[in-house]
Amino acid sequence: MSTDAHEHGAGHSHSHGVGADADRKWLTIALILIGGFMAIEVVIGVIAQSLALISDAGHMLTDAASIVLALIAIRLASRPARGSYTYGLKRAEILSAQANGVTLFLLAAFFIYEGIRRLITPPEVSGLLVFITALAGIAVNVAATWCISKANRSSLNVEGAFQHILNDLYAFIATAVAGAVVWLTGFTRADAIAALVVAALMLKAGWGLVRESGRIFLEAAPANMDPEGIGTQLAALPSVAEVHDLHIWQITSGQPALSAHILVAPDADCHGIRRDIEGLLHTQYDIDHTTLQVDHEDTEASTHCLDPHGEPYRSGENMLPGKG
């Protein structure tokens, strides 16, 4: 007897419309705040000849772009699956997060180059103007950060936009310190040093986004799930003889999925065991999207998965004679 089942879990729904609407609202408010202040900062940065301010403005441009990408990705991800896109466009959000990470890398490279150049030949910088503008930027970024924190940050897409804004907040703090130093001491290299600090923060945030989005694209198991531990746990269930072809991945951030081939004892209830496994995965691991093939183990040469992917997990108590 064989049973193949695709399970979404009790009470689980793929409709995230209400959450998506709330995310769009908070992201749009943050976009208006960021876009408006960015235009002002570019003008002041040019007048003050401050690389720190201009780097902040450049960062704010990517902040705005990251929010626009996030809004587009949310809209695309909400479309139902159809045609050859059997998962819909849910990974548009992951593409957005990866794009955010890459833009942070590119901006960091530019500001490192320009910061080093200005350390060597520092220009005149209006410290007081930089300081006042940075304080205003801190207020704007605190408000924008709060807005995005109200959205669903379990989405890597939203988290990407959040990291952009949060890093910009840190950048404004560094710029305010640099402006105060230039204003009070005349040490103009403080402006370039602040820009290098901002670049380091960009690299850190960018790496986190690229790493996490890369794991999803490569269909690695979620970082908080151990496939070996889950396989061993399933194989230890009563009447389960073997678990193989175990795959755990994420369709998009916060939506883990699992598929496996389960071999059970000849007299076992395939459907009952499948339901038990689905309940365990839902309760302990919050995995609602499962595809399980459950078969009776054959005492003869097995015809199931002659070339299974990955390590098979077996329970010594449930093994049939001659197996293992």
Automatic annotation (TrEMBL):
Location within or outside the cell: Membrane
Pfam annotation, one family: Cation_efflux
GO terms, molecular function: zinc ion transmembrane transporter activity
Record flagged with keyword Ion transport: yes
Keyword check for Transmembrane helix: yes
Biased composition regions of type Basic and acidic residues, renumbered to the chain: 298-314
Transmembrane segments: 26-48, 60-78, 99-116, 128-148, 169-186, 192-210
InterPro entries the record matches: Cation_efflux, Cation_efflux_CTD, Cation_efflux_CTD_sf, Cation_efflux_TM, Cation_efflux_TMD_sf, CDF/SLC30A
Keywords attached to this entry: Ion transport, Membrane, Transmembrane, Transmembrane helix, Transport
Domain Cation efflux protein transmembrane intervals: 27-217
Membrane topology: Multi-pass membrane protein
Record region (Disordered): 298-324
Superkingdom: Bacteria
Main location: membrane
Any one cellular-component term (Gene Ontology): plasma membrane
Annotated ranges, domain Cation efflux protein cytoplasmic: 229-296
Family, similarity comment: Belongs to the cation diffusion facilitator (CDF) transporter (TC 2.A.4) family. SLC30A subfamily.
UniProt name for this protein: Cation transporter
Organism: Mycobacteroides chelonae
Lineage of producing organism: Bacteria, Bacillati, Actinomycetota, Actinomycetes, Mycobacteriales
